[in-house]
Amino acid sequence: MVLELKNITKNFGGISALTDVSFKINKGEIFGLIGPNGAGKTTMFNVITNMFLPTSGEINFLGETISGIKPHKITDKGICRTFQNIRLFSQMTVLENVLVGGHCRSTSGVLSSVFRTKSQRTEEENTRKVATELLELVGLSSYEDVIAENLAYGQQRRLEIARALASNPSLLLLDEPAAGMNETETDNLFELIKKVQQRGVTVLLIEHDMPFVMKLCDRITVLNFGKKLAEGTPEEIQNNPDVIEAYLGSE
Ligand code: ATP
């Protein structure tokens, strides 16, 4: 098992964004987190990455509790995320964006050091090599020197994934990766996430595009008003009367 959420509750003043939510994600799975607007999905990502401390509950990652670890240390542990709204370094090149991602989990500060030791130089070369490979994976090799904000929308989304992968995560959290994409971009994204899975990375994704989720995910948890409504395979979720009534019926 990669991630275990145990009885997570998150209150904001009088609002309960999450109430007693538990689920487990196995190694290598593509796991979907779905539900209506305001169901608590992004809050769950913020709790997993410790941007918000849960009001109660516990998170275990690769057998170790990560509750209370500082958000920037979460990357060192092997969890990386993308956001609902694209957050690239828009004035930097495509390659530089991925190099920054690689730097996030590097231990010796390869990019910030002026006087580099031989081992730091080797590490910098490795970071560059990995960045180049990742750009190939996401289909952006020929855009290395392009300023990130000049990429098309779908390409920016894929660059975000490459940057996240550069930190070498065991678990990748994707917040609505297909939002705003056209059909071709969504198809490319589907192939990319499958390739990410083949690299041994476990994926947890929030998504409203139901055909995409049902085709891509191994298992799904449904949230509604901050509570877990259902969990199962795409087929089980699609045929669950409670899920149809609360969410799928209105999609
Ligand atoms: P969407 O699909 O629209 O992105 P969601 O399922 O991701 O929705 P959240 O963004 O997690 O839902 O919000 C869950 C609830 O928590 C909502 O009622 C929201 O208003 C509330 N909430 C989220 N973040 C905060 C915050 N920082 N302060 C106060 N309330 C918040």
From TrEMBL:
PROSITE patterns: ABC_TRANSPORTER_1, ABC_TRANSPORTER_2. SMART domains: AAA. Pfam families: ABC_tran, BCA_ABC_TP_C. Gene3D superfamilies: P-loop containing nucleotide triphosphate hydrolases (3.40.50.300). Residues 3-250 form the ABC transporter domain. Keywords: ATP-binding, Nucleotide-binding, Transport. GO terms for molecular function: ATP binding. This is ABC transporter ATP-binding protein. It comes from Paenisporosarcina macmurdoensis.
